[in-house]
Design brief:
single chain, 411 residues, alpha/beta, seven-stranded mixed sheet, two-stranded antiparallel ribbon, 11 strands
Length: 411
């Protein structure tokens, strides 16, 4: 009886109308696997090509699967699910990446690293391979943000399209982004999960297509930036909001009793208006950050750990209590201001004095409403209906083995 060898490496190529370059990419990958002495396969995850890419890939020796979800991430999600290898090395099918040199990725994966990122800046970028806007602005800025927001100090090329990873470990993350931001999602969520991430040098050459690339500079750059900011609510919302609110509180506390002098600068009621605004905006940023963290935990976009104590303040009971207290303080201040106005016959008042009570009172009322309803939204985010578990439908792969149909979330 012939023993079937276990596939160690799957080279995954997402594809949408890549007839010009797909064959050479498949042949380069197969040749490199053979040179490395690796039992592997080339898997083309096709996104609905209409130029015959599927038959070209099969003729070159690849296995082709259909990706039902459109988009770069959709094709890769499908390919990761369908891959048979223990390790997966993904790259674009435009003949720009070094598919003929898979050795460094395979060695790093065999050494036990969960994710192996390619670094084109260390390996070499051929003239004309990367637009100047990407090379000197987009990629450096996004890579810097990734390092700052997620502590990825050892990743210098955050958006290299050639990377390898342990298939089982990446499947466990349940990635879901269907567009170009999938590249960011993979490395960000791997980092948040504590995975071991390293880089190896790789090269980038001009692609061999005569048509424009699928990547759109500004649209996809914004999607990457948006993803990075949303996945780091503490650094983008909570910490800036905390600083802003504390500075505002200092201003409100000082100016509520009279004007302040800072050297030759006189601070009075006008500054108090902005101090109240800083408190209101700062607290809202903190609350938005808390809601973002709750959402991330509930949707399993970040590691499922116990919620931090400060996020527990967004429980409905706690937020209702805090909101009502703030409302009570604000209403009490408002009643005091109206009483003072009544004692003066409801005539003209000195705004320098009355605004020191009215502004903090109005701010407290606004904060009370915001905190109360933020708690309501936070509670809604944690609600999950109880549904009976239904068995997933089965699909049959080419060799006739039934397997559970993967469920992909298009986020």
């Amino acid at each position: 009886m012939t023993k079937v060898q276990e596939i160690e490496v799957t080279v995954l190529l997402p594809c949408l109308n890549e007839a010009e370059t797909l064959e050479i990419c498949v042949r380069k990958a197969l040749r490199s696997l053979a040179e490395c002495g690796v039992v592997g396969e080339v898997l083309v995850s096709d996104n609905g090509s209409t130029d015959g890419s599927q038959s070209i890939a099969e003729a070159a020796g690849a296995r082709v699967v259909h990706a039902p979800i459109r988009g770069y991430g959709g094709a890769l999600l499908n390919g990761i699910e369908q891959a048979r290898g223990r390790y997966i090395i993904m790259a674009d099918a435009d003949d720009s990446y070094a598919l003929s040199d898979l050795g460094p990725f395979i060695e790093a994966l065999r050494a036990g690293h969960d994710v192996v990122m390619g670094n084109r800046f260390r390996g070499g970028i051929a003239p004309g391979a990367m637009p100047p806007l990407h090379r000197y602005l987009g990629n450096p800025v996004l890579s810097w943000l990734g390092r700052r927001l997620f502590g990825l100090s050892n990743v210098g090329d955050f958006h290299c399209g050639m990377r390898g990873f342990n298939a089982e470990r990446i499947r466990a993350l349940e990635l879901c982004m269907p567009g170009m931001e999938f590249a960011s999602e993979l490395v960000v969520r791997a980092s948040l999960a504590g995975y071991d991430i390293v880089e190896v040098p790789t090269t980038l050459s001009p692609d061999g297509r005569s048509r424009p690339p699928h990547l759109r500079t500004w649209r996809d750059g914004w999607r990457h930036l948006r993803f990075l900011l949303v996945f780091a609510p503490r650094r983008t919302l909570v910490w800036p909001g905390t600083v802003l609110a504390l500075l505002g509180l200092l201003g409100v506390g000082g100016l509520s009793f009279g004007p302040l002098s800072l050297g030759a600068v006189q601070l009075d009621v006008s500054t108090l208006v902005y101090a109240c605004l800083m408190v209101l905006v700062g607290v809202q940023l903190v609350l938005f950050g808390g809601l973002a963290e709750i959402y991330g935990r509930q949707e399993k976009l970040v590691p499922q750990q116990a919620l931090d104590r400060w996020i527990r303040l967004l429980r409905l009971e706690t937020s209702v209590t805090a909101g009502l207290l703030l409302l009570a303080v604000g209403v009490a201040g408002t009643i005091g201001a109206i009483s003072y106005w009544g004692q003066d016959g409801f005539g003209n008042l000195d705004p320098q004095q009355t605004l020191r009570v009215v502004l903090p009172s109005a701010t407290a009322i606004a904060l009370g409403v915001v905190v109360l309803f933020s708690g309501l939204v936070g509670s809604l985010l944690t609600l999950r209906p109880a549904h009976p578990a239904h068995p997933a439908p089965t699909v049959v792969r080419q060799e006739g083995r039934p397997e559970q149909e993967p469920v992909l979330v298009a986020g």
